[in-house]
Amino acid sequence: MKYVVVSGGVISGIGKGVLASSTGLLLKTKGLKVTSIKIDPYMNIDAGTMSPLEHGEVFVLNDGGEADLDLGNYERYINVTLTRDHNITTGKIYQHVIERERRGEYLGKTVQIVPHLTNAIQDWIERVAKIPVDDTDEEPDVCIIELGGTVGDIESAPFVEALRQFQFRVGPDNFALIHVSLVPFIHGEQKTKPTQAAIKDLRSLGLTPDIIACRCQAELEASTINKIAMFCNLGPKQVLDVYDVNSTYHVPLLLQKQGIIDLLTRKLALDQISISGRFRDRGNGLLGKWRQLTTQHDRSFETVSIAMVGKYTHLQDSYLSVIKALEHSAMKCHRRLEILWIESSDLESESDEKAKYHQAWTKLCRADGILVPGGFGTRGTEGMIKAANWARENKKPYLGICLGLQIAVIEFARNVCELDGANSEELDPETETKAVVFMPEGDREKLGGTMRLGARTTVFQPGSEKSKIRKLYGSADSVEERHRHRYEVNPELVETFEAAGLKFVGRDTAGQRMQVLELDNHPYYVATQYHPEYLSRVLDPSRPILGLVAAACGKLDEITKGQSAEIASGEF
């Protein structure tokens, strides 16, 4: 097993996740089987209870694990399916060690950070790295490990020490370190001191980078690269210039051009790994498709605008997977994506803040399509209901995700079925007409890991053969998508809704839980209880989100036929 560690210095949020994902993609183009691990140094067990406005979105995995958003980057770029164990947190490690201590597994020893915690980290990495993640039962060839945060932070100290020991545990031929650092541009000059200081700190902790990936606004000058190489004891070719590009989808091509795979091949002897023809052939075609897609996107001039009506719009990373799925879909439709961010509460009342109210409605009215994503709590939900109502009445393409489905049901109950005061039990526990109810198996006391989580089957119902969303799935009988919710459509009102024209075309395997709805006589009015954005891939966009974008730019029939042909050919 080969290990590639990606660490960061100077500041957080400089793109370690994208660089790790891009490196994994390039390794996969060589036919290697690649997996990935994210280390998060916070004390939470997982990201499930963290505010989207503080941490960004919670990414849900097939097994129901609630993980850091970077695992979404790995799955989208490398096209693998990860598990909850691929996200390591300080909370998980401490919990694991303490449980072992309580069972007496340390034989009376004093349990310490070194060696017990650091050994537990290394054991966890080795165990998880061997889990097959491709459509095979074979162990991966390479594991990409991203160390979250910034080297030097007190929170990450045990993990840095564990990785220092790990390099000797697996041997120098099986361990490579890429350090991502910032090169700021100040007063017309590229400054190298922050990177020099970061590498000095890294070395003082016992880790020496094999590659330095320099994040910068514009291309680095040759003198800057040579200076960093000299003071950081590397060759100039080991200093990569990761400057700002049109989109993150260009980063793999940028890294490939600068020879990152050649560097890793020499360090890790990757050319000595036996590669089966099946994986070699797949890898050869992957980079070509990626380059073709980015080139076509760069040449696109027509735009498609999607109004994102949400409640966490102040931090756009709260909807990262939705954004990426929209980007994938826009590229598939040969359009440039314009997201019109609308804070849903701004749609509610003109008397609160008149300027914001009119700006929000102007954006909504000029959008080609409307998307209401997931969320929790009452704030802004009346604005979402107004957006769903406007989309329904004005035949504007609409997609609701999770809460967005429940919003569509509430709006329909109030304005079509004339059920006055209809609401969700979550939003108004005292409402007499509960269009959305708490799921019977839910836990009202504990928040972490207690929702309906992970991959679940949706069965398309008899009579739904003409459904737009079903056709986008290639007229499949059933699909598997990932869920994250505590509330569901009230099964007692389903007949009332369907009699009025709101069709629940997709249900759970028991036929009792509503998972996909679609409105008749509308260009595209679809909502899913699951989160289709989690399974979107760069070369294979999420079907419901692709449908929204295609309908918004007038290409739904064309895209639907194309999807059916690709599925029939086995391309996806």
Shape: globular
Q: How many beta strands in the DSSP annotation?
A: 23
Strand count, sense and barrel status of the largest sheet are: 9 strands, mixed
**Estimated radius of gyration:** 25 Å
SSE-based structural type: alpha/beta
- Please identify the top-level CATH class of the domain at 302-569: Alpha Beta
Low-confidence stretches: none
CATH superfamily of the domain at 302-569: Class I glutamine amidotransferase (GATase) domain
Helix count from the secondary structure assignment: 19
Straight-line N-to-C gap: 28 Å
CATH topology of the domain at 302-569: Rossmann fold
**Percent range for β-strand residues:** 15-25%
Protein name: CTP synthase
Catalytic activity: UTP + L-glutamine + ATP + H2O = CTP + L-glutamate + ADP + phosphate + 2 H(+)
Pathway: Pyrimidine metabolism; CTP biosynthesis via de novo pathway; CTP from UDP: step 2/2
Function: Catalyzes the ATP-dependent amination of UTP to CTP with either L-glutamine or ammonia as the source of nitrogen.
Description:
It is built from 19 helices and 23 strands. The chain is of the alpha/beta class and 572 residues long. A nine-stranded mixed β-sheet has the order 13-12-14-15-23-22-21-18-19, sandwiched between helices. The chain has a seven-stranded parallel β-sheet with strand order 5-2-6-1-7-10-11, sandwiched between helices. The chain has a three-stranded mixed β-sheet with strand order 16-17-20, with helices on one face. Helix 1 runs parallel beside helix 3 (70-78). The longest helix is centred in the middle third of the chain and has 22 residues, at 277-298. It is globular. InterPro entries: Class_I_gatase-like (IPR029062), CTP_synthase (IPR004468), CTP_synthase_N (IPR017456), GATASE (IPR017926), GATase1_CTP_Synthase (IPR033828), P-loop_NTPase (IPR027417).
